[in-house]
Amino acid sequence: MGKRISRTVPVAHTLLGSLLAGASFSAVAQGQALPAEALDWQAWSQDEAPHQLCRGRYVMPDYRLPAVDNPETLSVETQEVDYAADGEALLRGDVVLRRGNTELQAAQMYLPADRQRVDAEGNLAIRDGQALVRGEQATLMLNDDRASLRNSHYVLYEQHLRGQASQLEQTGEEQYRLRNASFTTCDPGANSWQLVSSDIKLNQAEGFGTARHARLEVKDVPIFYWPWLRFPIDDRRHTGLLSPSISFSNEGFDYAQPFYWNIAPNHDATITPRWMSDRGLLLNGEYRYLLEESRGTIEGGYINSDDGSENGDNRFEGNDRWYIDAQHAGTLTPRSDYQLRYGAASDGRYFDDFGGEFGNSERVSMERLAQVDYRGERWQLDARAQGFQRLEDPLSDSDKPFYRLPSLTANSDWQLGGGLYTQWRSNATYFWRDVDERQVPEREAAIGTRLHLTPAIGWRFEQPWGYIEPRTELWHTAYELDYGDRVTDRGTSPSRSAAVTSIDSGLVFERELELRGRDYRQTLEPRLNYAYVPRTNQTQLPDFDSRERAFSWDQLWSPYRFSGADRLGDLNRVSLGVQSRFIEDATGQDRLTLGVGQSVYLSERRIDSEGDPGTLPARPEDDPSVNPLSRYQATRDRSPLVTRLDWQINDRWSAGYEWLYDDQREQTERSSVDARYRHPAGHVVNLGYRWEIEGFDPGVVPGDDGFRDYSREEWDLSLAWKASPRIDLIGRYLHDQTNDRALERLAGVQWNDCCYGLQLVWREWVDDNDTARVGDDFNDRGLFLRFVFRGLGGVGQEADGYFEQAIPGYRPTPL
């Protein structure tokens, strides 16, 4: 049993915490590798191993010496102590020193008389709960932030990171220097990759490190060299190169190299030169800032003289192409916020050609906005100037959206007691757009002001067994218009006033039910809704923002046939429906919801986009520019029968179904079926089928990009299968059954290893060229690779966001 000595000594935190703090970059020497056991390595058990990426983990053993109340106390255990006359001490035979959470072990230690340092050698190990340092010899200055170790081995437990260094020095407070060093996140004995450098400096206070003559080795083969490299050693942001993005497609080679500039704690910028072999050099940039009461971003891109592409019509070849998107938001008072935004692109095809993941761009417009709002206890106010650049090319004048310069909104609600309530909704907007007013339909040719007031009064009586809610809303809309050079007989100060009346009611019946040994509560919920909107002449009104809505389950209960305020569709309709739910008692979850409903029309619907109450929409054979179903929709006696179903079959399988069936023509108008599989291990399968009759959406007419002159039939299969903790398989196939073509094909594999990750994806998709014609569509395809060295970074295009969108329910394993 060794001697145990406890005494308080003014030992600086240098002993272990300082040394290991710098090891967050985990460097390691070029000498003999230590066995895994010497690195505090603990292999997983047979039961745990199949579920882990790594073969084991780093675990610190228990402290050799117990903790004491005073963290400044230096506890010593040794087998032999030799004291010299001047006070020098030599400790030998498995010496252990502990101070706070730091423990130092060595074969022997020397303490000079002034006790200013410790010289330790022989089987040296330093642990502090976060890291392990081993070496042959160490000199630790007890009252100064300096230390030196030779032939060191390092482990960071939580980061799963280890390394070596022939010489480690602490040169100041939280300043370290490593010579002939390397590090890796691979398991002991499995150096799939490592970063090696002749000279590494670590600055823990600033959170970064620098390396000279650094090289990346894969299986001991050098594959990349940096004369000088700056890298982060914690989560703080630092100026330097980020992971590049590389992809190959039928358009050629695409390489992007981001550079991050940490300007200040609340300001940063990312500059990304991007080289595309078919188009040239594109420069992207993003600047972000965070102030005390506001925040914002400015981003943009520019390419000088686009070289064109092998696909498409290359109508922008030789042009300078660019975009800018600046956003700023802040707080004026606790009840008031504001937003500013300006977005613009050189052309409508910019993001189709340069933006998005895997050739996919979700941007459909660029917003311009200046807004301020107020949220009071009674009133909600909003003032804004807003506009959009629609990202389509070609883009006709009719498809250009109107600017709101400005738009002022004031809303309020009052509860009067006993279920009685009133509402006030109001808006005043000036609409403007830059078009040739002689080249657009007459109802779209005007610019001007619209005042829209919709006060409402209603009463809602509600009990657990049901409810009834009568409601009346007055629509008053007035305009001041300017038709410019357009010759027209339309008035410049038209107005419209009409009341929207509805009665919504429903009952709820319940019963207890047992199915397959489980208790359920089944509901039966019949619903009856009546809506009346008088037929009002709106031929003099412009069309700034209205569009007729497609029919759906929600439209059964809504009195509004149009979005926006320029058109108020005439309606005299009774809707009937019934819904039943099966609610599992044990979990409260809706296991099955089934609903069916239909509207019965008591009069024709004459108001369409023209607003004429005296005529019906033209027949398609008389006017090919109208929606082919518009006249039938206006004269039918009843709506399609709407059926919907949501079924949680079990904890893994669920299904959804919607069917709109015209029982007069005995024809399906729209249907969709979805089956979904979710496995606790992460397996995902989605199968969907969609059918829609030509012209089903009355707001889309021939010539619009959203219009298809055929009945649309598609089916969609997507899956993500975690074949093992290391392997994810992903795929998607979207098929256009009508035109017998694949809209998208995607197949990929992701390999997840303990210290690296690999993502390889092939994708082929159809680009519709921003037109409604199938004939000018073309296929695009690409092969995309992403490789990540865990703890160092990666190369390739980040794809997780796209996968989550394309394969609902899939959560990619982070690379």
TrEMBL record:
Record region (Disordered) = 605-633
User: What organism is recorded for this protein?
Assistant: Vreelandella alkaliphila
Functional summary from the UniProt entry: Together with LptE, is involved in the assembly of lipopolysaccharide (LPS) at the surface of the outer membrane.
What superkingdom does the record give?
Answer: Bacteria
Q: What is its main location?
A: membrane
Q: Indicate the segments forming the Organic solvent tolerance-like N-terminal domain, all copies.
A: 78-207
> Any idea what this protein is called?
LPS-assembly protein LptD
Sorted UniProt keywords? Cell outer membrane, Membrane, Signal
Subunit structure, as described in the record: Component of the lipopolysaccharide transport and assembly complex. Interacts with LptE and LptA.
Where is this protein found? Cell outer membrane
What family classification does the UniProt entry report for this protein?
A: Belongs to the LptD family.
Give every LptD C-terminal domain span: 319-724
Give the gene symbol: lptD
Annotated InterPro entries: LipoPS_assembly_LptD, LptD, LptD_C, OstA-like_N
Any one Pfam family match given in the protein's UniProt record, by short name: LptD
Q: HAMAP family, from UniProt?
A: LPS_assembly_LptD
Instruction: Indicate the secretion signal residues.
Output: 1-29
Does the keyword Ligase belong to this entry?
Answer: no
